[in-house]
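User: Can you recover a sequence for this backbone? Please restate the input before giving your answer.

Assistant: Of course. Working from this structure:
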């Protein structure tokens, strides 16, 4: 199962960071099952940045938001293209 790690929610919004909110919305719109984990400390994140996505043993290579697809692991992209 996918796990989206991002900053905590704020005032009822899923993420208080615009990048994390975009990824959250993208995963929801793609109808992908995922768990949303909120964390404060990004020191263990890839490049020390949030958000990032984990799919089993595979973690996204970068947390920079050059595009939604750059954030998702290859296994997720393969699932999206098979639909």
């Amino acid at each position: 199962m996918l796990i989206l790690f991002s900053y905590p929610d704020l005032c009822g919004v899923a993420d208080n960071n615009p990048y994390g909110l975009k990824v959250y919305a993208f995963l929801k719109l793609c109808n992908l099952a995922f768990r949303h984990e909120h964390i404060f400390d990004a020191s263990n994140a890839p490049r020390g940045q949030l958000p990032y996505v984990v799919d089993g043993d595979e973690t996204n290579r970068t947390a920079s938001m050059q595009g939604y697809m750059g954030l998702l692991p290859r296994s997720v992209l393969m699932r999206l293209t098979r639909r």
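That completes the design. Strands lie at 2-6, 34-38, 52-55, 58-59.
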